[in-house]
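Aim 2 progress update. The chain analyzed this quarter is reproduced below.
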Amino acid sequence: MPDQHHEPERAVAGTGMGGTMDLGVDEAEALERSPGGPAGRDDPGPQGRPRSLWSDAWRDLRRNPVFIVSGLVILFLVVISLWPSLIASGSPLKCDLAKAQEGSQAGHPFGFDGQGCDVYTRTVYGARTSVTVGVCATLGVAVLGSVLGALAGFFGGVWDAVLSRITDVFFAIPVVLGGLVLLSVVTSSTVWPVVGFMVLLGWPQLSRIARGSVITAKQNDYVQAARALGASHTRLMLRHIAPNAVAPVIVVATIALGTYISLEATLSYLGVGLKPPSVSWGIDISAASPYIRNAPHALLWPSGALAITVLAFIMLGDAVRDALDPKLR
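Predicted structure tokens:
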């Protein structure tokens, strides 16, 4: 009997210039592994294999002094947030009115605030609250916004139209005014009402970013080839689209983390965020404001810690953006 030759499974994908090309399974997988197109990236790795966007980004980040400095500052903040007793032995709630508004002393380098509390200890313990709020709010916003935006961008149609109108409504709500209204009725002194408020009003921005990124990624040739080969919606989203659409979300979320820390301090300063006995930089700044002439140190140190923290996260986000944006290469 004559030999029967079995042709491999083929798929047709658009070339982006009005034509088509015939792809097999191996070629489709090669396109997926090479975001730059069928020819791959111009700069191959040490073993002759094309480097991915993430390996190139990590290489650039390691050489970026802005990333190194901001990363070290953030690492220090995370460490003292988890173990504040490493550098502060006292209690942030222990106060002595006899020492109110006094300056620097032995064992108390930052002096005392208007209630006689050690400013140094409260500044160190305030990092735990700020980092916790920032990280939890960012994770919640990133997960909720990414999922909703990715679904809207992938399926389109009615789902996309409804989500777009919902995000328009949330964009119309002023953040600080919304916090004054929603958090003024909350009596809890924990961080979770503040985190919930930030997630509620913060997800539309990440949703828009994720939607646009997914719409761009799903038009690539390797996605069209996988769709023609019969890949399911779940496989298309998780295997082909998400890895190539997540970079803008990571950049925006990193920058937003510093913004959420600043927002928590603002709401706490206004009296609707965290409330005593919670330790927060916003609470300390609010309490020290009436004594700015007599005891400026009580305002200077928590304000400086807040500014350095927000700046570190913004610098980190800028470095990550520069590394992940191929247009800046």
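Confidence is low (pLDDT under 50) at residues 1-31, 34-42. Residues 96 and 116 are 5 Å apart (CA to CA). These observations will guide the mutagenesis experiments scheduled for the next reporting period.
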